[in-house]
Amino acid sequence: MKGTGAKYDEDLLNDINKASTYTSNLKMALNLGVYSTDMSFANIFNQSQKTVDYITSLKQLTDRLGIVQLIDEGTIKKFESQQSSKDEMLNIVSEVYMNANQYLTENNRKNIAVAVMVGGWTEGLYIALNIIKGNENGNKQLTERIIAQKLALTTVMNILDSNNPNGVDDDLTYLAGKMLEIKTIFDEVKADPQGQVIATTDADAKLTRIKAGIKSEISPDILNLLTDKVNEVRKEFVE
Fold first, then answer.
1. pTM of the model
2. Which of 188, 207, 209, 185 is nearest to 198 (CA)?
3. How much of the chain, in percent, has pLDDT values that exceed 70?
4. Are 183 and 153 in contact (CB under 8 A)?
């Protein structure tokens, strides 16, 4: 987002004080994803104190979800002392996310891991849409990244379906319904892959990036509908 010229807007982020109000596993998992995205957003814009605030909220949620020892006091102190670079902080967040996913999967709590993913993905889309709200032509690069999420949403929904094949998990059924509401609007967006899909892996950063050309088109009316729907879904997730 920063590379597209986007500006930092703290008002878009979820209030860290809400962390203690989430009581259900679903809400805690969703907002573990939300806060992870918000923390990364604050970090790339060099908002050091906000980044520390979010790592503290992440620890609170991981502890309450029973995902133990993912964020220790040493990690928090490192953030507080600002000894880590922006990239190092981002790598720590990525590692926490991946370790949480691994822990939940190995302990037969994949549904929680999926909810974390849905919360993080939705928050990223929410932030991007509201950054360009009313000025999509002024940030075509970010608009194209938003359109590309039509393809990402297909993956999100496939993961939801594969982890709830018989529809017996009420939480995943609920999330699938919310994603379907977003997909209904995305279906009006033209986003066709062009050329070869290339995946590159950075072993040190533990990140895999998937790149592909996309021929895309979205009208202002559809973009507004998409923004309204994502805002509505995100509000349900964080309230």
1. 0.84
2. 209
3. 79
4. yes
